[in-house]
Design a protein that fits this description.
The complex is a heterodimer of chains A (307) and B (52).
Chain A (H helix, E strand, L loop, with lengths): L1 H7 L14 H13 L3 H6 L28 H11 L5 H14 L2 H6 L1 H10 L10 H7 L2 H16 L10 H5 L2 H14 L1 H6 L2 H19 L3 H5 L2 H9 L6 E4 L9 H5 L20 H5 L5 E4 L2 H12 L1
Antiparallel strand pairs in A: 1-2
Chain B lengths: L1 H29 L2 H9 L4 H4 L3
The chains are: A mainly alpha (307), B mainly alpha (52).
């Protein structure tokens, strides 16, 4: 019973009406701590230089964050592409591996910047639902960001100095500003002296995302994140799948009203937009929604049990 | 019959992609691409923090 409450983050029987921390939040906090476990770095303003940084983490987590223990896959992809010496087998293979096993479960459960947006959305201000005619086309923007800023520009756009900068990291990435830029500026006076227009621009981008996250659910994940765009391609095929038992569904649409990503759960449960946060599962009064790595088998077993 | 064939092929997709991803990682390791990643990741990325 307790586990169930923890898993779904439902209200407890506590008369004070306190909410227990959800299973999703526990995993998000644990993964943020795991990927940024070099605590000493924050105090010293230095980054971790151990061998674990050769591994790409599955999430958007800047390798210039003082705590980062692994490499950011988006930054790594841009670096290897900018080198133009070979096809990015290692980085792409790592991303494909995470994508095919988990899909966008990575966004819902593991990404520290997703956690930041989720917490910002808890701030009690009026919530805004983006109208469909704006929301639907705007979601394609993240694929444009992936293709243009992460792939094409780092390969082809060479600056006057003869370098191919990581354009997404340089001009957009709010996770880099929050996890890398700001802590580094606080800890290093020398770096502070070098901060100019670019840093101010990046802080402005971060501020826009922070403010919009209070009103809209996960705006960065919906409209801008290139990593989310990459994993979205795998959502339909990944081993981890969401399932809807149509024989149990009563069509109340509670799942769709609860979904933070505005997915049409009853029509397209494994939509590329689904971050597998599990809120639809918790909302379903009939227990018609389930998920897992062996989801289909679970359903079969359940049906067999009923028979 | 045709539908079941398509379903069967569709079920194979994750396994093929999984195998391909492992193959890519293997090729990347042989080509020492992980060292390229390491080299970038152990230095402060000036572009990432808004300086470069």
């Amino acid at each position: 019973m307790y586990r169930d409450r923890v898993r779904h983050g439902r209200k407890t029987g506590d008369p004070r009406g306190k909410r227990e921390i959800s299973f999703q939040r526990i995993v998000q906090l644990a993964s943020a701590a795991l990927f940024n476990g070099y605590v000493v770095g924050f105090a010293k303003g230095k980054i971790f230089t151990g061998k674990s940084k050769a591994f790409c983490v599955p999430v958007l987590n800047c390798y210039s964050c003082p705590g980062a223990l692994g490499a950011c896959p988006v930054g790594s992809l841009q670096t290897v592409l900018a080198g133009r010496s070979h096809f990015p087998f290692y980085v792409l293979g790592s991303l494909m591996l995470f994508g095919i096993v988990l899909g966008r479960l990575v966004c819902g459960f593991l990404c520290p910047f997703g956690l930041v947006q989720d917490l910002l959305h808890k701030i009690p201000v009026p919530k805004y639902k983006v109208p469909g005619k704006i929301d639907r086309p705007a979601r394609y923007l993240k694929y444009v960001v992936l293709l243009v800023l992460v792939v094409l520009l780092p390969i082809f756009a060479v600056t006057k100095g003869g370098v191919n900068p990581p354009y997404f990291c340089k001009y957009i990435c709010p996770a880099g500003t929050l996890g890398g830029g700001i802590p580094q500026m606080i800890a290093n006076p020398q770096l502070r002296k070098l901060a100019g227009f670019l840093f101010n621009w990046k802080v402005l981008v971060l501020a826009a995302i922070v403010i919009s996250s209070m009103f809209i659910n996960r705006p960065f994940c919906r409209y801008l994140c290139p990593l989310g765009a990459f994993y979205a391609v795998f959502n339909r095929f990944s081993f981890y799948q969401m399932h809807l038992d149509e024989s149990k569904c009563i069509g109340c649409k509670k799942c769709e009203r609860t979904c933070p990503m505005a997915v049409e759960v009853t029509k397209n449960i494994n939509s590329p937009e689904c971050i597998r946060c599990g809120k639809c599962k918790s909302a379903c009064p009939e227990g018609a929604i389930f998920s897992g790595l062996g989801g289909q088998r679970e359903q079969g077993k359940e049906v067999a049990d009923r028979v | 019959m045709e539908k079941s064939k398509i379903n069967g092929k569709r079920k194979m997709v994750p396994f093929v992609v999984f195998a391909l991803s492992l193959l890519f990682i293997g090729i990347g390791l042989v080509k020492q691409e992980h060292l390229e990643v390491l080299q970038k990741a152990v230095r402060i990325c000036l572009e990432c923090i808004g300086i470069g």
